[in-house]
Amino acid sequence: MQKELALSQEGSRRWYRDITWTQWRVLIAAWGVWVNDALDFLAITFVLRDIATAFHVTLDTASLLLLATYGVRWIGGLLFGGLSDRIGRKIPLLITLTWFTLGAVATGLSWSFTALAVFRLLLGFGMAPGFSLGAAMVAESWPEKHRAIGIGILDTGWGVGAIGAALAYEFIYPDFGWRGMFFVGLPPAVLLGLFIIFLVPESREWKSRAAAKTTTWRANPVAELFSKYPKRVSYLALLIFVLCFGSWPFQALLPTYLRAAELAPAAISQITMASALGQIFGFVASGFIAEKLGRRNAISVMIAIGALCVAGVILAVGHMALIIACSFAGGFFLIGSSGIWGTVLTENLPRDVRASGVGFLYNFGVIGGGIAPFIVLSTMHRFGFSMPDAIIGFTLVAAVAGMIVIRFVRETKGLSLEEVDRE
């Protein structure tokens, strides 16, 4: 009777009461890095047209800066992930925060388009492990039954960073121009770095594994990843590539499209902030949806609804209330679905290669996001499509492809990390 009563009380207890202050600190640190990551990266989506004008290049050429950043992330993710599997999670997290913050500052100081491209490459290399390290830290510190929720909350950092970029465009850009957008992340990065140094512990899960593997723990985790799990790496890489490709015509080109529609900076900021707010709620909700429907079904449902909402955003220009509502919904469902990606990746990879695998797979996948804006803009120019048609068309096609690919991925709802480690 007492046992049944204890189980009943445990079941009725709020989930957040199971999380310790130490576990919250880990999430806050990982979340803060992801906020700054998004802030430093997304600033460029508001000023692509300014950069094209300043350096006398076409808009589709300027969009290659997104690909430059994303194109090298898989290398950074792999190297930083391998370093993290060797020496722990905390120091690599500090290194990546410092690296991409300095890369953003260098972007604002660029003197030519070539220099700008180089700095974006360096920024991409350093920002690569921002999410993957955080996801590994949260997965290894939070209780198993709340793991998807924790990673979903972690992903809200991207939406908060998007809001920061939108606010910078509304308040910093008018006075300081496009260069000023890239200095906004410096002060919070300094404060966050101090928080990580003094208040965030190393992953106990990693420490216990390192202590147990007295002779073999120094084996190259990157080599193990590809030699032991080639099939798993392949289908997970394809999944994240397709999902990223599907979300980035909306994320990257919405501000550019709204500027082409001659909306005022304040209106553009409000619309993009509506999307960012939707993302925040979507990231949080994604964890609960994934626990309810399973990982595969949750992603499929969210990207299907989200793609239709993106079409609503594009077609509703001229109706401010409607476009804000659709923008919020698009952020909630389409971008918010990515709150489940980290859960899928961490639950499919054993601990010895988890950081390496998540770092590589997530950042290989986002190459799809980097190439999507260029493909959309190039298709427009080559075949005479309008920007609305191109954004809607590519988003819908990618959503259908994502719903197909996800069916080949193992469902991991209810699977413990120990079960993954024993495979």
Automatic annotation (TrEMBL):
Spell out the GO cellular component terms annotated for this protein, sorted alphabetically and separated by semicolons.
plasma membrane
Cell compartment(s), UniProt: Membrane
- GO MF, one example: carboxylic acid transmembrane transporter activity
Q: Which domain of life is it from?
A: Bacteria
Q: Give TM segment ranges.
A: 26-49, 61-81, 93-111, 117-139, 151-172, 178-200, 235-254, 266-290, 297-316, 322-345, 357-378, 390-409
Keyword Chaperone among UniProt keywords: no
Q: Which SUPFAM superfamilies match?
A: MFS general substrate transporter
Main location per the UniProt record: membrane
Task: Check the record and name the Pfam families matching this protein.
Answer: MFS_1
Its record classes its membrane topology as: Multi-pass membrane protein
Query: InterPro entries, alphabetically?
Result: MFS, MFS_dom, MFS_trans_sf
Q: Which PROSITE patterns match?
A: MFS
List the Gene3D superfamilies: MFS general substrate transporter like domains
Residue stretches making up the Major facilitator superfamily (MFS) profile domain: 26-413
- The identity of this protein, by name, is Major facilitator transporter
